[in-house]
TrEMBL record:
GO biological process: vacuolar acidification
Name of one Pfam family that matches: V_ATPase_I
Family: Belongs to the V-ATPase 116 kDa subunit family.
PANTHER family per record: V-TYPE PROTON ATPASE SUBUNIT A, VACUOLAR PROTON ATPASES
Cell compartments where the protein resides: Membrane
InterPro entries referenced in this protein's UniProt entry, alphabetically: V-ATPase_116kDa_su
Keywords for the protein's UniProt record, in alphabetical order: Coiled coil, Ion transport, Membrane, Transmembrane, Transmembrane helix, Transport
Coiled coil: 79-106, 187-214
Listed GO MF terms: ATPase binding; proton-transporting ATPase activity, rotational mechanism
Keyword Coiled coil found: yes
Protein name: V-type ATP synthase subunit I
Length: 601
């Protein structure tokens, strides 16, 4: 369900405004209505946003170094210093990397000519001889150059030749080949320079690794501090100055259950305030307030989108279906037992578990229990069939709950039909709450048609298909669906819209129900793959009293680990798809609500 909200309006004297906001932030209960207008023009705010991006980038860079972090309480000032150090080291690394690339290019140019001292070339020039360096293909080289320019071959790489010419200073050498300009240093000097720079690079990387081990909590603390200032600035920019800029006007929202505490806080503040109910035009933030079992499924709802304030929260209504669908998709009692036990062991071993993580772990255990129960429908346990074991307990259980493939296929379709009909009922309720019952009449008409037809098909002895009672239901439903489709339009428009709804219902409803076949298909495929791994474990183990069991256990563990990972992923994705597409569509869910986020540290 969605928590009831109240609208809060504040008037504060401008000189006391920042003090009031600081106290309001410390209270941490009011969702302040913020505006994007003015944010882009505020240079200080934009700089703070860029700064938090720098902190985020620095933290990700340190995490990529894969160095175990030493947990400790973050310090904001140390985080500021760490950011400066990291960015300085990164800049130095980048410059060093560019210099290393330049030296490596010079080494590549120099290697064909060998290691010689450039001073030798200078001494020859002082003696009156000029040396030029060239490279060309073997076909381009002419033997005449040896006599004309004293061309001397230095090196050969494949079909490429490297040679020099020795001519008196002042004599021009005209060769239509590529001249080479050599670096200033010798090959050994260049390699020594590269080695020195690589040592410097390693030293810088070592400094960054040391920071990765110690600075992450400090960076996070500094980033949180900047984010707090950003939120504060946004709130300031969202205020309106009234009465010649003497008063500041601010709007916010809070759950009804927090109003008494807020009013007690405001009674000690120098501020005027009003508490009012939201109007239909207000964009009210959404605070989901489900209890117990249903609260566990709120993260799944947030993966899609939150409802609007005047909509039904569908979390309590899809939660039982999702739990059942997950169990059918995974469909192996052994896998469900593994999930339950793995979470239980983690709870015992973990030193500290966050409250949000505790709810997720509980959800995993509930889904595991659902898998254990649904796995009994087919008797699958780690790819083995429990009902092949001739023990009275399993045989009685088989007589009570066992379903074959055809029955599992039918069960999937029945569950799809039930959830879609249930979604249409919620759609009628939602339309009644939002707009009034007259806007839900057409939906109720379609419900009468579908439910009566399904009942006539399933139990013809109770309601004969095509009988008088059934035809009466069909007539009533058709009149409601065709003549009251849109209460604000005339009868002809309503009839046309009714025909269009008939087409959509005939095509869309069939496709929606067939989508639920995946519940049967995923469970069947997972069971087959598990049995294949069991066969491989037995068939590929060698006939050796020691090696045989070891190989069999390894294949069993690796195979079922892969199968659990793949099937758990599928068992999460496909029920979500059925929930977000088939169920939400037939329930008329719109969504688009923004989350209630109180202004706090």
């Amino acid at each position: 369900m969605i928590a009831k909200m109240k609208k809060l309006t504040f008037l504060v004297y401008h000189k006391e405004y920042e003090t009031f906001l600081t106290s309001l932030r410390d209270l941490g209960l009011v969702h302040v209505t913020t505006r994007a207008q003015g944010t882009a023009e505020n240079a200080e705010l934009q700089e703070a946003i860029r700064l938090t991006g720098r902190y985020s980038a620095a933290g990700k860079y340190l995490q990529q170094l894969m160095v175990p972090a030493q947990p400790h309480e973050g310090n904001v000032q140390k985080g500021v210093e760490a950011l400066e150090t990291i960015e300085r080291l990164q800049a130095e690394l980048q410059q060093l990397s560019q210099r290393i690339q330049a030296v490596e290019k010079e080494i590549t140019v120099m290697e064909p000519w060998g290691d010689f001292a450039p001073e030798s070339v200078d001494r020859l020039r002082d003696a009156g001889y000029h040396i030029d360096f060239y490279q060309c293909s073997e076909k381009q080289f002419s033997e005449e150059w040896i006599d004309l320019y004293h061309a001397t071959l230095i090196n050969r790489e494949g079909s490429k030749l490297f040679f020099v010419t020795v001519t008196p200073v002042g004599e021009e050498v005209e060769l239509e080949v590529e001249a080479v300009k050599l670096p200033a240093g010798s090959l050994s000097a260049l390699k020594n320079r590269r080695q020195e720079m690589l040592r410097q690079q390693e030293a810088l990387q070592e400094q960054l690794k040391q920071l990765a081990a110690t600075a992450l909590p400090d960076l996070q603390a500094a980033q949180h501090d900047v984010q707090t200032r950003i939120e504060f600035s946004k709130v300031v920019l969202s205020s309106d100055a009234v009465a010649d800029n003497k008063l500041m006007l601010l709007e916010g929202w809070a759950p009804v259950k927090a109003i008494d505490e807020i009013q007690q806080f405001l009674s000690a503040q120098e501020a005027y305030y009003e508490v009012s109910d939201p109007t239909p035009e207000d964009d009210v933030p959404i605070c989901l307030d489900n209890k117990g079992f249903f609260r566990l499924f709120e993260p799944i709802m947030r993966l899609y989108m939150l409802p609007k304030y005047n909509e039904l929260d569908l979390t309590p209504f899809f939660a039982p279906f999702f739990m059942l669908f997950f169990g059918l998709c995974l469909g192996d009692s052994g896998y469900g037992l593994f999930m339950v036990l793995a979470v239980a062991v983690y709870r015992m071993v973990a030193k500290k578990i966050e409250p949000s993580m505790k709810s997720i772990l509980t959800l995993v255990q509930i889904l595991g229990l659902s898998t254990m129960v649904c796995g009994l429908l087919t008797g699958t346990c780690f790819g083995f069939n429990l009902y092949d074991i001739h023990i009275p307990f399993f045989q009685r259980l088989k007589d009570a709950v066992y379903l074959d493939n055809q029955q599992m296929f039918n069960l999937s379709l029945i569950l799809g039909g039930v959830q879609i009909i249930f979604g249409m009922i919620l759609k009628a309720v939602n339309q009644t709450i939002q707009f009034g019952f007259k806007y839900a009449v057409a939906t109720v008409g379609w419900l009468i048609i579908l439910v009566s037809t399904a009942l006539a098909f399933a139990a013809p002895s109770v309601l004969p298909m095509g009988g008088t009672v059934h035809l009466v239901f069909l007539a009533i439903g058709a009149l409601m669906a065709y003549l009251y489709n849109s209460p604000d339009k005339n009868v002809f428009v309503n009839f046309g819209l009714g025909l269009w709804d008939t087409y959509n219902m005939a095509t869309g409803l069939l496709g929606d129900i067939l989508s639920y076949v995946r519940l049967f298909a995923l469970g069947l495929s997972g069971g087959i793959l598990a049995s294949v791994f069991n066969s491989l474990a037995v068939g590929m183990s060698p006939d050796n009293i020691i090696a045989g069991p070891i190989v069999m256990v390894l294949i069993f563990l690796i195979g079922h680990s892969i199968n659990i990972f793949m099937n758990v992923l599928g068992a999460m994705v496909h029920p979500m798809r059925l929930t977000f597409v088939e169920f939400f569509k037939n329930a008329g869910y719109e969504g688009g609500g923004k989350e209630y986020k109180p202004f706090k540290n």
